[in-house]
Write a sequence for this structure.
């Protein structure tokens, strides 16, 4: 092989890898991302049962029901609409009423979100960024 | 008083960094040796000044001087001394100060130990280091002054975030920064070479130890961070593909690629332009990581004390350095002479494959990390990219890389023989396949996936051992001769084998945990027993306990083996840190052999029970042990004589040398 051919081979295989990576990336982005919703967004464009979503909002006051075995129920609200959530694991330490939360899981037939992840950060002043932006846009919450 | 001195030292350090930037650079331009030499004392004095500033801040923490705003926000007089000390960098301002301190530490090392560097190269390297230090010192002084005073001084501080009150804070950030910032030396060397307009094998030999050191530190830092998050967060996970984790992982991937391409450049003087580009990209990814972590533009579970307004400043620094270096590269790269030729099947070829896969993998991580940010900026849509994305993109790219690793060291330079290499590795391959079959049939619930993964991990380990055996000539020469040859092998050969075997150990750990782990979530009444992983845990009840700055409810479990032998007890607790009123969960972890039993507790139930989440994690510790072995491999290579003593004088440019270059 001449120098040029070798260089072409290297460049060709490099391009091949990049193409492979790009294909994988596009495929994965199409399949494996979850959209972020606030409860009110679900009113406007309902997600189908079984869809995986990421729901942000505040934990509604007085909605936390603990103690039924390992299951916890609570309601996520954005002061306009609410979504009930069921979670079957240990909640994060800073999960509290009227605090920002991001919940990930699949919507059930009955409109209840079956969560497999509940995120509340390790900082008491934390408001998830998506939730803060969305609440501020509608003017229902201000940063202290 | 010492606080003001610290602040003053910081300002002086900035002035000195500016001197270090411009004087040696001008000296190198006009060829004045005396101007170029200014860089060395400037770098060493700069380190002394920053060390003084850092010590002043640390002193304020140790003395709980709450008149300093930074100390007031992040400390408390009742905090144990260790956490007062580590609290110095457990916040934005302090961690940026640590960043610059380490930067100047590396610069001073180059100044002190780079005696055999050509003066212009050294001057330019120190100038670029000075420029980076100036930018970050300016950032600290203008936006993040750790020495700002409060008037009047509060009586008590607000305490450090309880999650950070852990030994992990003493080890993880310094190691991680030594890695992150260590790559600045490779970056400065690359920029200096581009300014100089010449890069050769000697350059690669000078850069390699710095890259190696940074890489070893970063490996340790990431592993330590992973273990810390694993035991502290109480979620039982070791890696979440969180943006902050990715931010440290991308420079690691690029740095690993750089480490390998520098070998090709040193030994065969090929891949010059690529190596220079990688050196730039690696530190650029470090800077990007600093930006992502410090600015909080991405939602992360690990980011602490972030501030978006200050992020813009770091973004500007980022754009300046990455853009500047890439522009320099674009102008100068064409001037660099192309290097040696090689056959695609050769050690060089294998290292090129390594580089291709590593950089592509790094690119997918980059896309997955930044895509949500870009999409939101462009369309306003908010999405999240999580573990499933990375499992689908990163993993398929990384698996072939792992499978190819053992081939690299046994191929010969320039023109290799794939069949020969395969023959040399047949023992390792057979052993790995047999182990995979054994795993499939012997392990309870062993799946094909687990077996393949275990086989892959062992293939890496056996491959590394085979390489050592081949180089020592075991089986070919007399045992005594083989032993003496084994002892005479260069340290870097051992380093390579160790690092590759460590990668195998980590692979084994990851595979075993992800495929063979068992978990249970249940409510337990006192006296109740739960079985997991062949062990039984009896819940003994909750007991209150008071620590120095927290109160906690401790759940006690008695651990018994399969034959009801008492093995000891395990304590998991819910803590409340009184100063911040912040609760944390302390997981109860019991290590048995290489595996761990992990217990986290939740809330009490109405009927007096307790929610308990328990995991049996087979061979989980191998994940971090493997990383430590990799780090050890890097460390051993660093002590190779060829890197220490043999730093060569640059080849004299002449007809003979030119002929050799072209060969």
């Amino acid at each position: 092989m001449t120098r040029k051919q070798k260089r072409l081979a290297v460049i060709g295989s490099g391009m091949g890898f990049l193409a492979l990576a790009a294909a994988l990336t596009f495929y994965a982005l199409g399949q494996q991302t979850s959209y972020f919703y606030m409860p009110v967004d679900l009113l406007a464009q309902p997600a189908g049962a079984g869809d995986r979503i990421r729901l942000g909002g505040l934990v509604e006051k007085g909605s936390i029901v603990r103690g039924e075995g390992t299951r916890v129920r609570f309601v996520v609200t954005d002061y306009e609409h609410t979504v009930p959530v069921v979670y079957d694991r240990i909640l994060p330490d800073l999960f509290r009423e009227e605090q920002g939360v991001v919940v990930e899981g699949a919507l059930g037939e009955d409109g209840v979100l079956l969560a497999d992840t509940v995120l509340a950060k390790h900082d008491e002043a934390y408001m998830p960024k998506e939730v803060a932006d969305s609440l501020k846009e509608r003017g229902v919450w201000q940063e202290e | 008083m010492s606080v003001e001195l610290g602040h003053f030292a910081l300002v002086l350090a900035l002035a000195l960094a500016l001197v270090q930037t411009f004087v040696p650079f001008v000296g190198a331009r006009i060829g004045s040796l005396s101007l170029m030499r200014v860089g060395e004392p400037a770098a060493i004095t700069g380190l002394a000044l920053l060390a003084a500033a850092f010590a002043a801040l640390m002193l304020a923490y140790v003395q709980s001087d709450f008149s300093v705003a930074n100390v007031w926000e992040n400390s408390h007089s009742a905090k144990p001394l260790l956490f007062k000390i580590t609290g110095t960098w457990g916040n934005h301002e302090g961690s940026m100060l640590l960043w610059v301190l380490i930067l100047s530490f590396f610069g001073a090392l180059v100044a002190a130990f780079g005696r055999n560097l050509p003066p212009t190269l050294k001057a330019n390297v120190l100038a670029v280091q000075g420029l980076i230090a100036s930018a970050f010192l300016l950032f600290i002084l203008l936006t993040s002054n750790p020495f700002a005073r409060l008037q009047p001084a509060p009586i008590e501080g607000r305490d450090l975030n309880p999650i950070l009150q852990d030994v992990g804070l003493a080890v993880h950030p310094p190691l991680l920064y030594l890695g992150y910032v260590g790559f600045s030396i490779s970056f400065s060397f690359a920029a200096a070479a581009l300014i100089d307009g010449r890069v050769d094998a000697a350059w690669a030999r000078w850069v390699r130890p710095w890259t190696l050191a940074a890489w070893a530190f970063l490996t340790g830092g990431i592993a330590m961070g992973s273990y810390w998050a694993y035991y502290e967060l109480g979620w039982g996970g070791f890696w979440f593909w969180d943006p902050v984790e990715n931010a440290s992982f991308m420079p690691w991937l690029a740095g690993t690629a750089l480490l390998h391409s520098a070998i090709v450049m040193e030994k065969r003087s090929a891949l010059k332009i690529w190596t220079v580009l990688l050196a730039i990209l690696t530190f650029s990814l470090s800077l990007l990581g600093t930006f992502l972590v410090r600015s909080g533009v991405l939602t992360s579970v690990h980011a602490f004390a972030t501030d978006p307004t200050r992020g813009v400043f770091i973004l500007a620094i980022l754009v300046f350095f990455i853009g500047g270096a890439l522009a320099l590269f674009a102008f100068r790269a064409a001037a660099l002479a192309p290097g040696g030729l090689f056959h695609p099947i050769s050690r060089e070829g294998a290292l090129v494959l390594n580089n291709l896969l590593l950089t592509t993998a790094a690119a997918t991580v980059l896309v997955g990390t930044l895509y949500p940010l870009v999409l939101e900026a462009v369309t306003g849509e908010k999405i999240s990219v999580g573990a499933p994305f990375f499992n689908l993109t990163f993993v398929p790219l990384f698996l072939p890389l792992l499978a190819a690793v053992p081939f690299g060291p046994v191929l010969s330079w320039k023109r290799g023989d794939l069949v020969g290499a395969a023959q040399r590795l047949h023992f390792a391959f057979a052993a790995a396949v047999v182990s995979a079959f054994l795993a499939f049939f012997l392990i309870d619930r062993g799946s094909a996936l687990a077996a393949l993964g275990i086989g892959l991990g062992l293939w890496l380990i056996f491959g590394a051992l085979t390489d050592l055996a081949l180089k020592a000539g075991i089986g070919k020469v007399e045992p005594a001769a083989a032993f003496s040859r084994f002892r005479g092998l260069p340290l870097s050969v051992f380093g390579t084998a160790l690092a590759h075997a460590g990668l195998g150990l980590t692979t084994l750990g990851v595979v075993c945990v992800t495929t063979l782990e068992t978990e249970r979530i249940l409510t337990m009444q006192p006296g109740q027993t739960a079985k997991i992983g062949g062990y039984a845990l009896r819940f003994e009840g909750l007991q209150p306990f008071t620590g120095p700055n927290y109160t906690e409810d401790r759940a006690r479990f008695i651990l018994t083996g399969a034959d009801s032998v008492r093995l000891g007890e395990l304590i998991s607790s819910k803590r409340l840190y009184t100063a911040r009123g912040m609760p944390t969960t302390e997981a109860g972890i019991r290590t048995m052999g290489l595996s761990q039993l992990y217990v986290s507790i939740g809330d009490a139930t109405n009927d007096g029970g307790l929610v308990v989440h328990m995991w049996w994690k087979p061979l989980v510790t191998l994940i971090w042990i493997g990383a430590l072995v990799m780090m050890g491999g890097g460390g051993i290579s660093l002590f190779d004589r060829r890197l220490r003593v043999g730093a060569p004088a640059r080849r004299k440019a002449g007809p003979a040398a030119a002929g050799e270059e072209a060969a």
